[in-house]
Design a protein that fits this description.
alpha/beta; binds arginine; about 10% strand; 4-stranded parallel β-sheet
Length: about 600
């Protein structure tokens, strides 16, 4: 369905033209004076100079041509030259009924669906998931769902950090603890055991110990670096350990992401890019894109229009080791070959923006990524504690994802218990569902690039701009619809009626923004716009609900209209939170 704004703009454009003015001036916006009108056009003021006419005269001319408008009512020209408009109630009801009849709620899907690859999650294998990865997972999952909602073919890739120094550390520590294992016998040529020689618990204990020791013990650090090198050069026993680490960690990661309702289509990692690196380096050298600078192999990415210095993208260190940028470039080669994406969207801490700028420029310059493929970096800010510093546990350690979720769910459980509307057995499940909304909405309602304060108390509140408030609103609507149906009455065939009062109209005006909001949220990769929208929508619903008797309404036609509007409101809210990656319970 066409967006309501476009429909209004069309009528305005026709009126401007009919009155002899350029339709360029027929821009429509939401009213910033909702007490006076719903939409407005300021084009008469903009055109005054060109036509050497007083804006109010232009506005009057245009308003005259709108007298038989299909969608607009109460069109007035107001000094100095505003055109104020309201939508016809019949028109709005009709639009909403069309939305309601459409499975996609009237969303205009992309005309030419593309292939979109979302690189998010970015977990580092064998290191615990921490809050830094939480944002990537939450925002990335939302972007992936949004792209899919717009009709694109989408793949979400976790792109694990699975090839670095941490692997060498674990191998070294394991060697010390269990030197008898066959992986460490240089002359061993039999089959290695199928079972990993450690559990996920041990693995998580091994890494921090090894990492701390390497910082103090130079010999140990050298051994870990050497183990990393041997692993990367194909040492048979170390590769086998690596496979065990991957198996055990990926199973654990899957469980963790599952509990966040985050699902990847591809479980690839930095290691998958390795086989592309030697050829890439060879051809970069041959084609003259890369050159040696201070012993290292680099690609210059400085551009003339740059106002500051952009350092070259490093491809190979003097000792032959590859770097973060090398892997990301090689991964792009692999992605172009395997999926030929039209758009690749990367999620990572915004402090990585220089890295992505270098990689993107290098990819373009070398032709690894063609012009038609958009590369986008969506950098996010830090999640801070109430003290304004990066989120930590009470004892000052890095907060683990599981404990963070645990903290929110505990708080939710308490709140639900005091509410007592949910049976004991259901309470645990409900606490998890509502807790998820608290975490995700708390994050997504902020512009991604901004730092934000993770405030358990505020995020779990049933009031204010929070996930639980949105869910509470949905649950309230569900409960009314259930009661209505409990009397044997049917809902699906009901039609929205032209609004009976201001509150109902205000709710309708929010509902019909849906397709506009979803589309621009995707264009701008701005999930916070969806949050702001559902907050307004929930507020409009609650105002309507408090001022209107719905189930007690005696006028049957009126009541049917209300119920149809409620059912549509619920679908719109649910569809939005589905994009955001959470869901509503039955009760709370
Ligand atoms: N593993 C990285 C980190 O923990 C994030 C990876 C982001 N994606 C990428 N293609 N570089 O910071």
């Amino acid at each position: 369905m066409r967006k309501i704004m476009d429909l209004i703009a069309d009528e305005l454009a026709a009126a401007f033209e009919a009155a002899g003015y350029d339709k360029e001036y027929a821009k429509v916006t939401l009213s910033n004076r909702p007490d006076l009108c719903e939409y407005q056009c300021n084009g008469a003021m903009a055109g005054a100079k060109a036509y050497r006419r007083a804006p109010i005269m232009i506005a009057n001319d245009v308003v005259e041509r709108l007298s038989d408008s299909r969608c607009l009512a109460e069109i007035t020209a107001v000094k100095p030259g505003f055109i104020n408009m309201k939508l016809k109630n019949e028109y709005v009801a009709d639009y909403l009924n069309q939305m309601s009849a459409d499975e996609e709620l009237g969303l205009e899907r992309a005309k030419t669906p593309g292939m979109v690859l979302v690189d998010y999650g970015g977990a580092n294998v064998a290191k615990p998931l921490h809050v830094g990865h939480l944002r990537s997972a939450i925002i990335g999952e939302g972007i992936k769902r949004l792209a899919r909602r717009m009709g694109h073919r989408v793949l979400g890739d976790i792109h694990m950090g699975d090839w670095g120094y941490q692997m060498g550390l674990i191998i070294t520590e394991l060697h010390e603890r269990k030197p008898g294992l066959p992986y460490f016998q240089e002359d061993f040529d039999g089959e290695y055991p199928k079972e990993a020689p450690f559990t996920i618990g041990e693995l998580e204990e091994i890494y921090p110990k090894a990492s701390a020791r390497a910082k103090e013990d130079e010999e140990y650090r050298k051994a870990a670096l050497e183990a990393t090198r041997l692993l990367q050069n194909g040492h048979r026993g170390y590769r086998a350990i690596w496979s065990h680490i991957m198996e055990v960690s990926v199973a654990d990661l899957k469980k963790n992401y599952e509990s966040l309702n985050v699902h990847f289509d591809l479980w690839k990692g930095e290691s998958d890019a390795q086989s592309y690196i030697p050829d890439m380096i060879e051809s970069l050298k041959q084609e003259g894109y890369a050159h040696i600078d201070d012993g290292a192999l680099v690609i210059d990415v400085q551009e003339e229009s740059d106002t500051k210095e952009i350092p070259p993208c490093m491809i190979q260190k003097s000792d032959g080791a590859s770097l973060y940028g090398t892997t990301d470039l090689a991964t792009l080669i692999q992605r172009m070959e395997d999926y030929d994406p039209d758009q690749v969207i990367y999620l990572a801490d915004k402090r990585q923006d220089l890295h992505f700028l270098q990689v993107f420029r290098a990819a373009r310059k070398t032709g690894i990524v063609p012009e038609k493929t958009r590369l986008e970096f969506l950098g996010f800010g830090t999640m801070n504690g109430k003290d304004g510093k990066p989120f930590k546990t009470r004892d000052g350690g890095v907060m683990r994802l599981e404990s963070l979720i645990g903290e929110i769910v505990d708080e939710m459980r308490k709140k639900i218990a005091t509410n007592r509307t949910v049976a004991q057995e259901e309470a645990e499940e409900t606490a998890k569902i509502v807790g998820m909304s608290a975490i995700k909405y708390g994050d997504l309602s902020n512009q991604a690039s901004k730092d934000y304060v993770f405030d358990v108390e505020r995020f779990t509140s049933f009031e204010g701009n929070t996930g639980p408030y949105i869910l509470y609103t949905i649950v309230r609507i569900k409960s009314i619809l259930n009661k209505y149906q409990a009397d044997g009455k049917e809902i699906s065939s009901l039609k929205v009626e032209p609004a009976h009062d201001e509150n109902e109209k205000a709710l309708m005006l929010e509902v019909l923004k849906y397709n506009d909001v979803i589309e621009s949220a995707f264009e701008e990769l701005a999930l916070h716009k969806i949050c702001a929208y559902i907050y307004d929508l929930a507020n409009a619903f609650n105002r309507f609900y408090h001022e209107t008797k719905i189930l007690a309404e005696e006028d049957v036609t009126k009541q049917k209209g209300y119920i149809a509007l409620l059912a549509l409101t619920k679908r719109v809210l649910e569809s939005c939170i589905d994009v955001l990656g959470f869901a509503a319970p039955e009760r709370m």
